[in-house]
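ugh ok fine here u go
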Amino acid sequence: MQFTFDFGDATFAANVTAPPVRTDTGWIVPAGPLAVLHPFGDTEFYRHGWNSWSPSGWARTDGETIGIKDSPERLLTADDAAVETPHAHSGSAVGAVAAPDGRVLLVGSLGLGTPRVGADRDVLWGRSEQDLAEWFVAFGPELEVFADYARLVSERLGRRTRRAGTVWSSWYSFFESIDEGLVARTVADLEGQPVDVFQIDDGWEPIVGDWTAGPDFPSGMQATAEGIAARGFRPGLWLAPLIALPGSEIARTRPDLMVQGDDGRPLVAGHNWGSHYYALDTTQQEVRDHLREVFERVTGWGFSYLKLDFMYAGAVTGRRSADVHREVAYRDALQHIRDVVGDDTYLLGCGVPMIPSVGVLDGARVGPDTAAVWDNAERPRDPSGAGALNSIVQSVNRAWMKGLYEVDPDSVYFRSARSLLGEPERELLRDTAAVLEFRSTSDPMAWLTEAEREELAAWLSEKPTVEHVGRHRFVVDGREVDLTAVVTGGYEPEPTAVAG
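structure:
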């Protein structure tokens, strides 16, 4: 049916499936496809990514899209296999077009169903794989409109308010090369620093999919957790509970527990660790029992901060035992994990579908992996590739998501050793973490100079007041932090020599 959205001094003709309802901040539109005509011509479009690593940001409708444009293998891990062309601007769940006066017209889904929002020079549209949720249509100042959208999503899906505190992670220093002796030494060196959580990342398990202590942790993970707690830190642990490598016991012995492809074999859900991997079919009771056992085990060891990675695999397109939409299957699995671990365990999602995770996760990564390099030389045109630049760009473009859960822009660096980042680039990472109000690092004390240790301790101790004042501009305790040049491509780092 035809409808006109009235915003006082502006009206927009539209096609909707049923009459919308006016609210104080916009219009609630019943589930179903919709299209809103706009008079702005070629303009800026805000594209939002489906999961943590998917690119998000503003691009002109008459310019190149910012989606992933390389191999199908990468699409599986980064952007819901949504192939885009330079003439098809679209993204996940929410999108907006900019008016000449600085206001924006926004369309956003208020729930699940794999909704997509796209735009061209005439139309802002929304549609879903399955019509499970209403839409929100609003027109007004950019920051207000996105804040109103986040509030409505939280009203429908929930909002958790537990905060992580400051976090130290093993990943960006040691990667998978960890053992219980290294962890013990690193924890001991860190004692006395203003760090709340010491999180062990990938490398503790024998193989992804089998969540028991690997051979490099002969004393067991409970002993390691107790050692972390004895130094005054909250023990944290990394898992990827919804995927399994082909060599894992669960994948070898029970391929029937995996999401299946059309060929009746376990579906390839992505590629990492030099291999492909599969996704667990969380609609099966045996898989739910498996997840209960895994999470009762790791929390029983004493870990109460859990980083859950590669979680998008719970929502890949494939054959499951139950006929439910894939985002519903994912959210049900995530809620099951929450029910097992309880409210006191902090759950940080990584590689998660962003909107379906609202109300269950305490925090979520909002960009690709950072790195001790500015840009990714191997994937220079891939906005989801690891690197400090991509991490900043995607995270800042998701600052509005602070209204949904804690947003984690990833670790910052203070070390000059073993890094290709100059001091200005390290400062940009710290500013990004400060404005998004999530502070984590991966710098071992042994890698820092005395001055760098003092600087890190001071930064971790800060609790500034943050105000979002413009698209990419913030005020932190009265100091303006303008990240516009970095996010829009106008920043060029100085060449930096390798140190250490």
